[in-house]
């Protein structure tokens, strides 16, 4: 009973933290939309393209984090695959906005390449584990079919 109480308390605390995080994200999202709207309406010709594109890309990041929060509440977990997707897209968006320093571009490209390699390795290992699981189940069924005299 004590273990169930601790687990339930942990889930409640985690849910409250996720709701708080969601509210914080919504407030920052509203702030970014307000800044973007005021910049575009008041700016005229003096609007900095890079600043506008940076705010728009940050807005898309809010959408991705909202999707992660929703996934947590629907599935009770957040998959590593989605974190890798978000990391890759965030780095690509960052590369679109910040591209004035060659060393930064090289570091970001290396980070994107590393994330892609991690994603490939993760998918291959997941596929290997599933194949092994099915292989073990298949071997067990074949063994039972070949040895019907034993009661398993």
UniProtKB/TrEMBL annotation:
Keyword terms of this UniProt record: Cell membrane, Membrane, Transmembrane, Transmembrane helix
Annotated TM spans: 12-29, 105-124
Membrane topology summary: Multi-pass membrane protein
One Pfam family hit: PsiE
Protein origin, superkingdom: Bacteria
Gene Ontology CC annotations of this record: plasma membrane
Biological processes, Gene Ontology terms: cellular response to phosphate starvation
Localization in the cell: Cell inner membrane
Main localization category: membrane
InterPro entries: P_starv_induced_PsiE, P_starv_induced_PsiE-like
PANTHER family, A to Z: PROTEIN PSIE
Family per record: Belongs to the PsiE family.
Protein's name in the database: Protein PsiE
Lineage, top ranks: Bacteria, Bacillati, Bacillota, Bacilli, Lactobacillales
